[in-house]
Amino acid sequence: MMTKSNSNIEIINELDISKAPKGAITRYWLEIVKDGMGVPVHIPIIIARGNEDGQTVGITAVVHGNELNGIPVIQRLFKEIDIEELKGTIVGVPITNVPSFLRKKRRFLDGTDLNHIMPGKEKGTVSQVYAWRVINKIVKHFDFLLDLHTASNGRINSYYIRADMSDEVVRKMALLQNAQIIVHNPPNDGTLRGTADELEIPAITLEVGNPNLFQKGMIRDGLTGIHNLLGHFEITDSEVEEHSSETVICKKSYWMYTDMGGLLAVHPKVTQLVKKGEIVATLRDVFGDVVKEYECPEDGIVIGKSVSPVNQAGGRILHLGIVKKR
Q1: Listed residue (193, 192, 151, 150) closest to 173, CA to CA
Q2: What is the pTM of this model?
Q3: Maximum Cα–Cα distance for the chain, whole Å?
Q4: Cα(53)–Cα(183) distance, integer angstroms
Q5: Using one digit for the tens of pLDDT, what is the confidence trace for 237-271?
């Protein structure tokens, strides 16, 4: 039986692409913080650097600790790269939020959502310091950013993209993904994508399926989109698959919420078109009697939805995308 050890992987304190060897794919452990025993916490970094200098594409995953589909997307990408044909650099961060990944939890050690406090603070709380170091040790070195996420616990997602479609470069990055849905979503303060935008790094968020598992189809689709982007920007020789006419572009989106508690059943499937007034969810009490039926407030498409029956007042029903008229 063949075994490999990570013990010979170099430990670094900050990403310095100029020190990565050209014409090679190199792995690093980047020390990000020390834990409560003073033991270093390391983020895994993969750098593919071509023989020719060029732009740097950064790909991050697991900003939330239970969002796993991005890990094999990045792993497979680096297995498929032809380093001899590479122009520029690709940086993969398969696990960004290491403490939460190890605990199989979405949120950080102090209960904070790491993707709502970017860029963090140099001298702040546990989560703020971690976020600040992710930005300043890693992300600020990118020319483009693709941030891979999934749905949260108790929900499922389509394969969709969040992007500022008013920015021409970002729009092209989004269209190249050939996703099921694209949502126009200007960067929000506190997100990794929003912080990249503030650093003038074009960025998109890829929502690649569901939490806590690997989904082969979603992984394949995410990988294809990244190859498209790399080919379009001439970083690799990847053949670009033209933008799919089946991609639905939404001008905005929002969640529907319950106003009382009970056992919830959400009826439409993900990516299904729904009409105003259509019954999209039924809420029952513990005895099985219907308490309320929820109607769709306007025409749209189901981007994601709740699949957990237990739903307190204020719980999520479905993520409704409002389709942009062609």
Answers
A1: 193
A2: 0.93
A3: 67
A4: 33
A5: 888 877 667 899 999 999 999 999 999 999 999 99
